[in-house]
Design a protein that fits this description.
alpha/beta, Rossmann fold, six-stranded parallel sheet, 37% helix
Length: 189
């Protein structure tokens, strides 16, 4: 089985690492493809594509498992906005028909609006990672939003952390180097 883990990775963080390590341990995948997203109408990036890829390369080298692979096709070669259907078709053609897409449970609520065909909602195999520990995700929620062909991954405890929350701790338009020069005790929580 090949797992597709698409994300902005802006920046990659301990939550991403925990998901990947849990997949490696509990699912024993053939591969985990990290596919950083390119242009999307619902997302703006805080660093360049070049920097996101560089951070991701460091991140993958620290995981140190040859099954974890960065596929930068959508950053380097894709024209226009990308959607999950594009990623699915590309991955099936390049890698295998035996793939599962990894999503956080926070995506359930917007997934019905991703595309008019409800491709992501109904057609692809999905593995949902609980994002909000306080919210219980029962089959009722998946039914309410029309989610089909899914599994809820409850085998591991994934920290509830997001790149958005990490960026909030770092003042905008400030380089970390400057913060360290101004205050050698500056630490990102």
């Amino acid at each position: 089985m090949i797992y597709i883990f698409g994300a902005a990775f802006d920046p990659p963080h301990v939550g991403h690492s925990a998901i990947i390590r849990a997949l490696l341990h509990y699912k024993n995948p053939e591969k985990i493809l990290l596919i950083p997203s390119s242009k999307r109408n619902d997302k703006s990036y805080h660093v360049s594509d070049e920097h996101r890829l560089a951070m991701l390369q460091i991140f993958v080298s620290e995981i140190d498992d040859k099954r974890v692979i960065i596929d930068d096709y959508f950053i380097k070669n894709w024209e226009g906005e990308m959607i999950t259907q594009d990623v699915d078709i590309y991955a099936r053609e390049k890698y295998s028909e035996d793939i599962v897409h990894v999503f956080g449970t926070d995506t359930i609520f917007s997934m019905p609006e991703w595309d008019s065909e409800h491709y992501a909602l109904k057609k692809i195999k999905k593995l949902f990672i609980p994002r909000n520990i306080e919210q219980s995700f029962t089959s009722d929620i998946f039914d309410k939003y029309g989610v089909e062909n899914y599994e809820l991954f409850t085998d591991s405890h994934i920290p509830d952390v997001s790149s958005t929350e990490i960026r909030k701790i770092i003042p905008e338009y400030t380089a970390l180097k400057t913060l360290f020069e101004e205050n050698p005790k500056f630490i990102i929580k």
